[in-house]
Amino acid sequence: MEHHPAAARLTEAAAGAVQQHGTGNLLRVVLIVMVLGCVLTAWFLLRGYKRKDD
After folding, report:
1. pLDDT score of 4 more than 70
2. Which UniProt key words apply to this protein (predicted)?
3. Would you put residue 52 in left (φ > 0), alpha (ψ -120 to 50) or beta?
């Protein structure tokens, strides 16, 4: 497995957030990102239905 510095930074940031503020804030961030991802995915998939291919 290769070492990715960006992934290590994200892991350290997540661990730091849990230590400083508990799991509540981390869970809140994860849920917000998940909802935004679902909305963007739905927009991307459904935008093709608005086009008229006459």
Report:
1. no
2. Membrane, Transmembrane, Transmembrane helix
3. beta
Tell whether pTM > 0.85. Answer: no
Ramachandran bin of 53, using left for φ above 0, alpha for ψ from -120 to 50, beta for the remaining angles: beta
SS (H, E, C) the chain: CCCCHHHHHHHHHHHHHHHHHCHHHHHHHHHHHHHHHHHHHHHHHHHHHHCCCC
Q: Which of 18, 19, 38, 39 is nearest to 28 (CA)?
A: 18
Q: How far apart are CA 39 and CA 41, in angstroms?
A: 5
